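Figure S7 source data.
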Amino acid sequence: MASRSKANETMKSVLAIYPGSFDPVTNGHLDLIERGAKIFDGLIVGILRNFDKDPLFSLDERVEMLREVVKPFANVEIDVFSGLLVDYAKLREANVILRGIRAVSDYEYELQMAMINRKLNPNLETVFMMPALSYSFLSSRIVREIAQLGGPVAGFVPAAVEQRLRAKVL
Ligand code: PNS
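Tokens for the predicted 4'-phosphopantetheine complex:
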């Protein structure tokens, strides 16, 4: 069996991209970022510039909120991308796509994306991680809906995001 130092010599540095809309970033996203930051050498949170969607928060607002909440993680970067994720991964020389799976219901869509991305670039690995159980019911869409209907979102999103959500729906 190879010694640990021998194994380290052949170990690659792993740069992962965590792509998404992040409209807005939730505590579930943050939980996944924290887990990803622990196991990857570097983690890029890639916000999709999606011209089809009408987001609640502008791209700049989403970048600002994410930059604020990832401050504790030195190896996490916030960036914006458009076009195919595989092309962006190539541009950034990333070797992993990180995605969160909350429940079985997420799996079908995530599997489809992972398989398509593998077809487009067989060298790019998709890694799934599960957020803490307490966030398994959480989504940006649900958070937006609660805020827009005047409900409380404390505990669902970081404090900085909560303030912005309140200001947005007033
Ligand atoms: O958080 P979301 O909105 O579910 O994230 C979806 C995202 C951004 C990961 C996905 O839409 C994406 O990768 N879009 C980029 C376009 C692309 O590469 N499409 C082909 C693979 S599905």
